[in-house]
Structure formats: structure tokens, C-alpha cells
TrEMBL record:
InterPro entries: EF-Ts_dimer_sf, Transl_elong_EFTs/EF1B, Transl_elong_EFTs/EF1B_dimer, Transl_elong_Ts_CS, UBA-like_sf. Belongs to the EF-Ts family. Residues 73-277 form the Translation elongation factor EFTs/EF1B dimerisation domain. The keyword Protein biosynthesis applies. Pfam families: EF_TS (PF00889). Keywords: Cytoplasm, Elongation factor, Protein biosynthesis. The gene is tsf. Gene3D superfamilies: 1.10.286.20, DNA helicase RuvA subunit, C-terminal domain (1.10.8.10), Elongation factor Ts, dimerisation domain (3.30.479.20). PANTHER family: ELONGATION FACTOR TS, ELONGATION FACTOR TS, MITOCHONDRIAL. Associates with the EF-Tu.GDP complex and induces the exchange of GDP to GTP. It remains bound to the aminoacyl-tRNA.EF-Tu.GTP complex up to the GTP hydrolysis stage on the ribosome. This is Elongation factor Ts.
Length: 278
């Protein structure tokens, strides 16, 4: 058994971003030499990529990039296995570089993004695989959002002060209303709407809610004559839960988000919300 301390393991983890057991094995092989252990981890890193594919990646970071004129914004989620890696500078630098690349190249979809060249002769997929190897954890890039036109604002929320943002929101308004964009983005972060407006809700989902509402009312023994009003009330409740513009506004629940937008003289054209691992 090589002679090394817990401090050596900690130092190696900070230098390499690798997991604790990988660091201990590398130090064993390097006979306690931290510098040599770093090299061992780098050499073995690419071999470990395939082994890590079956692991789950539920930690990570959300990064936003907004144009100076607020005409365009992007949101990228990069996932890893542990909060230890997520809070590291190396992982966050990878996430930022990917977000900058998305902003610069405007890929049409994820496949296009992964196949695009982020560095000379290196695709995004290879770049992520190298991060996987160097950090010693499964690194996953499987979604991004890009909004352009009107005024795009963002909000990033930290669920813990020592972690990078875990929730990110983009909001696209028709007019340059920075304060409104920020307020609505914070609302979206907190209340996680599914749809922008009622037109986005699939008709079959609405009909399903209507059927459930009617069946529930009958089960509760509500009068037949009152059923239509009860059903509509419960369907409206579904809209208030799922539809952004129908939701009670976070800062004043006596107003809907739509009313807040109308009073501000603007409208919302789109939004995106990511929560790491969700």
C-alpha cells in the first residue's frame, strides 16, 4: 500500500476532478506521487468514458449567455454525477465554453450542436467526452435553448451558495422591459409553467382534464345542474397551474402574469426553463 494521506487525495481530486476511489487507486499506483497520479488519471480517463455511460448524471450547472443588446439569449444545461465536480472551476469552464459556442453558432438542434466544431478539429461531442475523461465523471449535454427577437432576459438561481446555478430561465418579451423580464423570469423559476398560453396546451390534455373533473364531481355527489360550472372551474384551475400567462403572479397573486404584462405594456413571446437533472 502506497503511503499517502487524506490531504493528498483531496489535492488530487481538486487537480483532476476525478472521483475519490479513482484518486486513491491512482495514488496507489503512483506510490503517493500526486503529479504522477494526475498523469495516470489522464491516461486512464478516456478508457473510463464507456464505463461511466450507465451512471446517472443529476448534478451540474445551467449557464445563460445574453447578447449585449438583449436581442438573443441561450440557455445550456451541462450535467455531471456529483456536486463536488459541479462546483469545480474546470467543469464550470466547460459549461461556459459550450454555452458561448451555442450562442455563437445558433445550432438548429442537439445533433447539430454535438457535431459542430467547438475547437479546431474537435467537435462538441469530443469536447464533452474529453471532459468526461478529465473530470472522471459522466458528463452529459442533452439540451439547450435559444431565443431571438424582441427583448431576451435571463435569471439564474442557486439552490445552494456553493454550487453553480441549478435553475435557469430565458424570457422573450416583445418590448425592452428589463425589470418586467427579470420579474417574469423569477416567477417562471419558482412556478415552473409548462405552457406559454392556452393555445399551446394539447386539446387532448384539456379534454382529459375535463373528463377527470366531471367524473370527480359526480363521485363527490355534486348536483347535475352544477356540473358544467364545477367542471369549467376545475379546468381553469388546471390552466392556472400549467399555463404561464394564467398563473397568479409570484409578487402579487391577485394579478395574473398576463395582467402584469398588459399593465407593463408588453407581451411575452417565449420562455425556456431548465432545472438540472429535471
Amino acid at each position: 500500500m502506497a503511503n499517502f494521506t487524506a490531504a493528498d487525495v483531496k489535492k488530487l481530486r481538486e487537480l483532476s476532478g476525478a472521483g475519490m476511489m479513482d484518486c486513491k487507486k491512482a495514488l496507489d499506483e503512483a506510490e503517493g506521487d500526486v503529479t504522477k497520479a494526475v498523469e495516470i488519471l489522464r491516461v486512464k480517463g478516456q478508457k473510463g468514458v464507456a464505463k461511466r455511460e450507465s451512471r446517472t448524471a443529476e448534478n451540474g450547472a445551467v449557464v445563460a449567455v445574453i447578447a449585449d443588446d438583449n436581442a438573443t439569449g441561450v440557455l445550456v444545461e451541462l450535467k455531471c454525477e456529483t456536486d463536488f465536480v459541479a462546483k469545480g472551476d474546470k467543469f464550470q469552464a466547460v459549461a461556459q465554453q459550450v454555452a458561448d459556442h451555442v450562442f455563437a453558432t445558433a445550432p438548429a438542434d442537439l445533433d447539430t450542436l454535438l457535431a459542430s466544431e467547438i475547437e479546431p478539429g474537435k467537435t462538441v461531442q469530443v469536447f464533452v467526452d474529453e471532459a468526461n475523461a478529465n473530470l472522471g465523471e459522466k458528463i452529459v449535454l442533452d439540451r439547450f435553448a435559444r431565443l431571438t427577437g424582441g427583448y431576451v432576459g435571463s435569471y439564474l438561481h442557486r439552490t445552494s451558495p456553493d454550487l453553480p446555478p441549478q435553475v435557469g430561465v430565458l424570457v422573450q418579451l416583445a418590448d425592452a422591459k428589463a425589470d418586467v423580464a427579470k420579474d417574469v423570469a423569477q416567477h417562471i423559476a419558482a412556478f415552473s409553467p409548462t405552457y406559454l398560453d392556452r393555445d399551446e396546451v394539447p386539446a387532448e390534455d384539456v379534454e382529459n382534464e375535463r373528463r377527470i373533473a366531471e367524473a370527480t364531481a359526480r363521485e363527490e355527489g355534486k348536483p347535475e345542474g352544477a356540473l358544467p360550472k364545477i367542471v369549467e372551474g376545475r379546468v381553469n384551475g388546471f390552466f392556472k397551474e400549467k399555463v404561464l400567462v394564467d398563473q397568479p403572479f409570484a409578487k402579487d397573486n391577485k394579478k395574473s402574469v398576463q395582467k402584469v404584462l398588459t399593465e407593463a405594456g408588453t407581451s411575452i413571446q417565449g420562455f425556456a426553463r431548465f432545472r438540472v437533472g429535471a
